[in-house]
Design a protein that fits this description.
The protein has a domain of 87 residues: Flavocytochrome C3, Chain A, domain 2 (Orthogonal Bundle). The chain is 19% helix and 0% strand. The chain is mostly helical. The longest helix is centred in the first third of the chain and has 18 residues. The structure holds heme C (2 copies). One heme C (HEC) binds next to helix 2. The site of one heme C has 22 residues, from helix 2.
């Protein structure tokens, strides 16, 4: 019954949507779709998994992840990344140990484990998709960053 009462309202909303005038504007980052129309971004495919560490463009850039991370659990009980990247694990995992900066609290005190500030790795580190950028990018990295 409730739904029936709502129907005229839905109809009106639909009409309002159709009647919206085209602005003629588009945003290249969304493709050639006018801004008032929903765009359909391409689906994500498989992230690059070539295990090749990428050059950094400037000091203090978080390195991108050169391997897939699908389904890795990161929550209060377990952190899959630390299973390989914690410095106590790298002897066996042969992963690059998370750098010493990750073991400092905000007061600069050295901690025995990764700081909670660095716990959610993918806030800063991301895998890469094998796609061409939609818009041009003329960004140039610093010639010789001191990081690896
Ligand atoms: C099974 C072990 C393993 C797990 C789990 C793992 N990694 Fe890695 N990671 C590696 C290894 C080994 C490398 C070195 C390059 C390679 O072989 O892919 C690496 C490389 C990296 C690098 C590149 C470092 C650099 O200096 O270029 C980053 C960043 C990274 N991993 C982040 C993560 C994050 C974030 C997670 C969790 C979402 C994660 N890794 C989970 C093994 C692992
Ligand atoms: C707040 C952002 C941030 C978070 C969160 C973070 N990192 Fe980093 N990470 C960085 C930055 C910036 C660098 C490069 C500068 C440095 O070494 O501190 C880096 C460097 C690294 C490196 C390369 C070390 C080397 O010697 O080349 C690894 C591996 C890494 N992080 C792993 C991790 C893992 C695993 C986690 C999660 C437990 C994590 N990071 C969480 C920002 C972050």
């Amino acid at each position: 019954m409730k739904l029936l009462k709502l129907l005229p309202l839905l109809g009106l909303l639909a009409l309002a949507a159709i009647a919206q005038p085209s602005t003629g504007l588009s945003d290249p980052a969304r493709g050639p779709v006018p801004v008032e129309k929903p765009s359909h971004p391409p689906r994500l495919t498989n992230a690059v998994n070539d295990d090749v560490r990428r050059p950094r463009n400037y000091d203090m850039q978080p390195p991108t992840i050169p391997h897939r991370v699908d389904g890795y659990q990161i929550d209060k009980n377990f952190n899959k990344c630390l299973d390989c990247h914690a410095r106590t694990k790298t002897e066996f995992s042969l992963a690059i140990p998370a750098s010493p900066t990750h073991y400092l609290d905000r007061a600069g005190k050295v901690l025995p484990q990764v700081s909670t500030r660095r716990y959610f790795c993918m806030q800063c580190h991301v895998p890469q998709e094998p796609v061409q950028p939609i818009v041009g990018n003329a960004f140039e990295g610093v010639a010789v960053p001191t990081g690896k």
